[in-house]
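Proteins fold reproducibly. Take a sample protein:
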Amino acid sequence: MLTNRHRYSPHYKNNYCEEIKIKKTTALLAGILTTTLCWAGPGDKVDFPAEYKTKFTPYLSLNRTQNHDQYIRLYINDKGLSGIEENGQLPYGTVIIGEVYKAQKDQDGKVVTSSLGERLANKFALVAVMERREGAAKEYPKGLGNDDWDFAAFKPSGERASKDLTACAACHAPLTESHHLFSYDHIISEQRMK
C-alpha cells in the first residue's frame, strides 16, 4: 500500500502523470478510430469504378436537363442490365455512371449547339456515380433515401470531388415511378436492342 510519503515522491508523480498521459492518448486514438470506421456519410461507401469505360455499357448521351451548360454520357454495369432483363428491376449492386462535360461555348460565353440542337461536349468535368446499395437510405435525410441509391462524385482522375450529395438525392427523390432515374426508359430501350 502506498503511503502519503510515496504519493508525494517525485518518482511516483512522474509515473502517475505518465500513466494519465498514456490513458488520455489511448482514449483519443480509440475515439478517432471508432469515428473513422463507424461513421459514413452519403457517398462514402461508393468506390470509383476505374474500369467503367471498358466494363460498363454506354446507353445514353444527351444534354443534361438540370444544368443548361453541361452534357452527360451514361453507363450501366452488367448487374443492372441483368436485373432489367430478368424482371425490369435494378437490383442491389447496380451502378450507373454519368460522365459530366462542360458544354462548348462561343466567344460571348453562350453554349454552342449542333445542327440537331444538342450541346457539344467540351471539358470532362466530373464522374457522377449512383450505386444501389443495401442500407444506403439510412445515410441520407428522411425522404431522400431513394430506395437505397447512394450517390458519389469524382474528378476525372478518380479523386473524390467535394459535392453536396444530398442535393443529388433531392433531385432524384421524386422519380419514384422510374426507380429514381431520369434515364430508366433508356436503359429498358438499350436492353431491348440486344
